């Protein structure tokens, strides 16, 4: 596929918009359909699209395995960190409203970080699964 | 008055889009082989989805929904032909011959083969083969 000009041009055209749409889904998740899981899936789809067109090795140079694997852990740690932040500020585990003096602002803040953690972990896991499957030979 | 006009136009677009989608689905089921089926499916992509989106944009008026529908239309406009191209190219690379190419090859074979066996049909292959060549 590396020499297919149509796919390469359309990939260059589409991938930035796919990433931007993922950010929209991520940050609009409070008000409409969307959220961290969907945004992470869309980002992973963009990278998988890139890998299909430009080759798996190019994609693994852009996003090496250690980055993907650490993203899996960072997302989960962010999620747990928000939970323990609520615990440290005097609420229960994953209580959002203690994160700010205004409870509504605290809810927004907590959901923002939770969704970010979910997005990072989903992106890492999906891309890791894709790398593992795509790296296997025909045997 | 203008509302009725816009509504009528929008319904016409929606109905025409639905008809094109149905034609595409029918072609996808009934066409003989891969490439012609792909052709029928791409009709659904361009005309069917385009007309349905146009009807919905007319229904939405000048709102944010219309802008989103335009963006969806642009996405389909760029990705549909590329998907069809990738599918066709992948099939061709894997050696799937179009049906018409096989028919052409057979007709070429029948045009050239009468030379060793001229007994069956002395003149008709050459006479019939000549006008169908271009």
UniProtKB/TrEMBL annotation, chain A:
Subcellular location(s) of the protein: Cell membrane
UniProt keyword annotations, A-Z: Cell membrane, Membrane, Transmembrane, Transmembrane helix
One GO CC term, this protein: plasma membrane
Membrane topology note: Multi-pass membrane protein
InterPro entries: CPA3_antiporter_subunitB, MnhB
Membrane-spanning ranges: 9-27, 39-59, 71-91, 111-134
Pfam families the UniProt entry points to: MnhB
Residue intervals of the Na+/H+ antiporter MnhB subunit-related protein domain: 6-127
Entry superkingdom: Bacteria
NCBIfam families linked to this entry: PRK12508.1 (NF009162)
PANTHER family per UniProt: NA(+)/H(+) ANTIPORTER SUBUNIT B, NA(+)_H(+) ANTIPORTER SUBUNIT B
Membership in a protein family: Belongs to the CPA3 antiporters (TC 2.A.63) subunit B family.
Name under which the protein is recorded: Multiple resistance and pH homeostasis protein B
Natural source organism: Accumulibacter regalis
TrEMBL record, chain B:
GO MF: sodium:proton antiporter activity
Organism: Accumulibacter regalis
Signal peptide per UniProt: none
UniProt region (Disordered), positions on chain: 107-134
Name of this chain's protein: Multiple resistance and pH homeostasis protein G
Transmembrane segments: 6-29, 41-60, 66-88
InterPro entries listed in its UniProt record: PhaG_MnhG_YufB
Keyword set, alphabetical order: Membrane, Transmembrane, Transmembrane helix
């Amino acid at each position: 596929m590396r020499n297919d000009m149509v796919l390469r041009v359309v990939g260059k055209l589409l991938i930035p918009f796919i990433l931007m749409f993922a950010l929209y889904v991520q940050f609009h998740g409070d008000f409409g359909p969307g959220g961290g899981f969907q945004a992470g899936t869309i980002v992973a789809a963009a990278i998988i699209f890139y890998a299909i067109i430009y080759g798996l090795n190019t994609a693994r140079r852009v996003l090496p395995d250690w980055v993907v694997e650490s993203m899996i852990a960072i997302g989960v740690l962010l999620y747990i960190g928000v939970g323990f932040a609520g615990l440290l500020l005097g609420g229960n585990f994953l209580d959002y409203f203690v994160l700010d003096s205004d409870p509504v602002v605290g809810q927004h803040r907590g959901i923002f970080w939770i969704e970010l953690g979910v997005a990072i972990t989903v992106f890492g896991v999906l891309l890791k699964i894709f790398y593992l499957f795509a790296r296997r030979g025909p045997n | 008055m203008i509302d009725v006009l816009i509504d009528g136009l929008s319904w016409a677009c929606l109905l025409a889009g639905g008809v094109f989608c149905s034609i595409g689905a029918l072609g996808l089921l009934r066409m003989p082989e891969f490439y012609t089926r792909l052709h029928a499916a791409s009709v659904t992509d361009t005309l069917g989805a385009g007309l349905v989106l146009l009807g919905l944009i007319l229904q939405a008026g000048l709102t944010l929904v219309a802008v989103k529908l335009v963006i969806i239309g642009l996405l389909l406009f760029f990705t549909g032909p590329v998907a069809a191209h990738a599918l066709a190219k992948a099939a061709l690379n894997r050696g799937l011959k179009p049906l018409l190419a096989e028919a052409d090859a057979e007709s070429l074979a029948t045009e050239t083969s009468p030379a060793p066996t001229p007994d069956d049909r002395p003149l008709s292959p050459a006479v019939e083969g000549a006008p169908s060549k271009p």
